[in-house]
Amino acid sequence: MDKKIAVGGDHAGFEYKTKLINVLEAAGYEVKDYGPYTSASADYPDFVHPLCNAIEAGEFKQGILICGSGNGVAITANKHQGIRAALCWNEDLAALARQHNDANVLALPARFISFDLASKLSEIFLTTEFEGGRHATRVNKIACK
Fold it and tell me: What's residue 133's pLDDT?
């Protein structure tokens, strides 16, 4: 399991992101924070695109993005051909995003879930393996070429 992870989001996700970095580092992950670095109003694409570029370049296998609804960061991330971002708000979705979709970015909705749940979803996402098989055939058809 790769212990390098990229994190980012927007001002609405800043508090969760900051706390999650501490949790991830305590669990032995090497974390790169793509911002924002304060809770001041910020435009999530400014942080999402660099994070996704780094994943596409192979610097990281996975990332976690946090904004108010999770939608903005997920939509932006999914503009990248090499990114499969999954918006998750319960444990089953986090597991299935990895098992069936080989998602490489977890999008979390800070305004709609507790921090404890966000932390649990991150753990599930980072430790669940892709099942491959019939799912790999489908995943290989996602990117526009």
Answer: 81
